[in-house]
Amino acid sequence: MGFDASGVTGADALKQAFREHPAGVALITAMTEDGPVGLTASSVASVGIDPPAIAFSVTRATGSAGGVLSADTHLVHLLDSRHAEVAQAFAVSGAERFTAEQGWSSLATGEPYLPASRVALRCRPLHTLGVGSSVVVVAEVLGAVFGDAADPMVYVDRRFHTLPSAERP
């Protein structure tokens, strides 16, 4: 069975392939000397448990991504259907972030924390790898703060979608 080249290559092929591939939605936050920073990410994945680690990527090392990359620790909030508006705000440059209406607080360690999230993983970077204009981060999970769960949310075809919850034990 051969490879049928459809004429779509490179970045266009990757975008087209992943546009219809659902991904979980996360919000990554950190505290910098200039204040809190955060960004929405659909690239968070579990790496392993020894050490407990996750991976994610950011598209450039400037702005909020640069702040996350330069921080000693960060929080990775795994979002659910209650947080589509917050995820959208942190996905758009210049949008209102860290507002009182969004419900932010801080952990005792200083990271911006969204208490309404189902879980926030406190992490510290272990490795970074530059790939063109993107940076892949592998981070050790230091601990977690768990909240209430709600219907899961995924990102597909440039929009946030709610999935029905599986029955919880």
From TrEMBL:
Domain Flavin reductase like: 18-162
One Pfam short name: Flavin_Reduct
Record field: transmembrane: none
Superkingdom as given in the UniProt entry: Bacteria
Keyword Iron-sulfur attributed: no
Annotated keywords: Oxidoreductase
Protein name listed in UniProt: Flavin reductase family protein
Lineage of source species: Bacteria, Bacillati, Actinomycetota, Actinomycetes, Micrococcales
